[in-house]
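Q: Hi! First time doing this. I have a protein sequence and I read that you can turn it into a structure. Is that right? Here it is:
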Amino acid sequence: MPNETVIDGDVVSLDEDSKPSFNTLQNYGSAGAPLHFFTFDVLILKGKDVMGDRLMKRRELIEEHILPKLAEPIRYPQSSTLLSERSSSR
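A: Yes, that's right. Below is the predicted 3D structure, encoded as structure tokens:
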């Protein structure tokens, strides 16, 4: 990830059906399920505050500057439905 970059997301544990499971996350130590980080947004990129940019622009920045430098367990939801569900739950 580029230096001086801040991303937003959630740590998630997936159940056996690959669905997010809070119970599995709570019991991470005993369950042994892998953790994933779903990144949703970039707040600062290379020292520049990008929070004033439109969400679609920030998602383009994630795809161009951040995702190519990261590997599993970093995940990136492609669906805008996931984003709207996340923002409405906060």
